[in-house]
Amino acid sequence: MKTNKVTKFLFRRQIIGLAEMYLFLFAAFLVLPFLFSAISGSLNDYSLTNQMQGSWVTAAFGVYMFVISTLSYENFKFLIQNGISRQTFFNAQVIVNGFLILIGNTFNLVYQYAVLMPLGHAKDTNIFMSSYAGYFHNPIVAFVFNFIFSGLLLIVGALSGMVIGNFLTLFSKFVQRIILIATPVVGYITAMYTASRVILDKNFQMTWVANFAKFILGYRPTGPYDPFPMIGTMLVMAVILLVITRYLFSKKQLKRE
Amino acid sequence: MSVLEVSHISKSFGSKHVLSDINLSFDDNKIYGLLGRNGAGKSTLLSIITDRIAADSGEVKIDSEDVDDNDSRLGLMYLMSEANLYADGWKLTQIIKDSESLYGGFNHELADRLIKEFGLDINQKFGKLSTGYNSIFKLILALCLPVKYVLLDEPVLGLDANHRELFYSELIQSYSDNPRTFIISTHLIEEVANIISDVIVLDQGRVILNQPVEDVLAKTHSVVGPEKDVEQYTKGLNVIGHNMMGTIRANYVYGDLDDRILPDTVQLSNFDLQKLFIFLTNQYEGSAKNEDQ
């Protein structure tokens, strides 16, 4: 097994991509507004504090993990050219995503606690902090669960990306386009149909959906939400997505281009 | 002794049968020529051998171990093909470094010499290479990586005559310095005829010839002379093709001749691999049609 070599290869490529993304974002959200303010003579209106309070810093990592997880075909081509099996590629990709999530999640939480909270005097810096943090009375325990909850959210996001990306690579580019166009259209029609039925047809209330969603989210009529049903759900989802991803990796083939 | 075995491989794309029950064995340190017309299934077979695509049935083994999802076996092979599996934006130097890391070695001394001889700018990005230099770069990788099986699918695609000559000479030198198994799939039969030790001919997804070149050529006989004498002499032999030049007829026979007496008016000689290939593949088409009827 050449898992270590492949892990190093993938990690190097993806950490460089992450650094490039952050450089681009810092240029787009901090440097460019400063330059525009300087050029237009409104430098007094520019506030570095305001610019840094945007949620883009922490959201960017989740988006990056999702996007790179969907893009595996280029790496597959290079690795199969170099005699690397699909199993090794899968193992290495999971390890690399794990490392990246560990780094990104740590960075996000440090940024939240060290920058966003002091600058914005706000506590609702992410989903956990706004809905679940109050469940814990000890701030250290809340921090630990914030880390676990955010990490699991990133893991589920990245694995969802891997499932979507690897599913699409089973098809030709033409079929991929059809799927990418048809899926949102079908989804929109289904959502509209369901919504209209809920509004117009009193017999079609689907209360079980609402009750199930409340259970998953840990909804409580009074006080903050309970994070444990959500953590449990994310764990189960992660295992299911991992099994699906492994299956899809085993079906990877070079396409006739 | 290492052996690459292909057993009962079949593959279809939709309703098209590309390979039908292919059985082959590639021995150590030989140079095989894999010949076939367009669409015969050569590239598909090489892609299945290297696990790039999956066969519908059958298996590929190296030293009795399945290559499917097996790093230790896949790492013994390198397939150079027309398909570009390196990203356009990657630098050639980085591709070499990464390939070296994954294969666990690289012959830098040979690579440096080949880069110089072919005039390849190694600081370029892969996507910037012309068709010829694209092939040259992949050929350099194929010759310099430490593998037991080098599979070359149309290796001289886009190369000019000088570079083709240089490649064949470097291939022989590399084989002589470091004997290993080469499988060369090509249309340019005349160019590889003097290099290959064994020939495999694929036609319509089936193996129709698989023998050492020496044995194959020994079985080729062109019988030239007056039509009547030639027909009389070749009666009952395996005539795979013929030519007419006025009243002179040439019958091409593939197989052993018996001890029949050669008439004074008839001349007997061997013919080359390309001619044999053309006759065999045309004949097989005829046979297949007859079988279908």
Summarize the helices and strands and which ones pair or pack:
The complex is a heterodimer of chains A (257) and B (293).
Chain A: H1 3-40, H2 48-52, H3 56-70, H4 73-81, H5 86-120, H6 127-131, H7 139-168, H8 173-200, H9 207-217, H10 227-250
Chain B: E1 4-13, E2 16-26, E3 31-36, H1 42-49, E4 57-62, E5 65-66, H2 71-74, E6 77-80, H3 92-103, H4 108-118, H5 131-144, E7 149-153, H6 161-177, E8 181-186, H7 189-192, E9 198-203, E10 206-212, H8 213-218, E11 220-226, H9 227-233, E12 239-245, E13 248-254, E14 267-269, H10 273-292
Parallel strand pairs in B: 3-8, 3-9, 6-7, 7-8
Antiparallel strand pairs in B: 1-2, 1-4, 4-5, 9-10, 11-13, 11-14, 12-13
Helix pairs in contact in B: 4-5
- State the shape of chain A: globular
Oligomer: heterodimer
Report the count of strand segments of chain A: 0
Name the helicity range of chain B. 25-40%
Q: Please summarize the sheet with the most strands of chain A.
A: none
Count the domains of chain B.
2
| Largest sheet report of chain B | 6 strands, mixed
What sort of overall outline of chain B do the alpha carbons produce when their principal axes are compared?
A: globular
Classify the beta-strand content of chain B into a percent band. 25-35%
Radius of gyration of chain A: 22 Å
Distance between the termini of chain A: 29 Å
Q: Helicity of chain A, in percent?
A: over 70%
Low-confidence stretches of chain A: none
Assigned CATH class of the largest domain in chain B: Alpha Beta
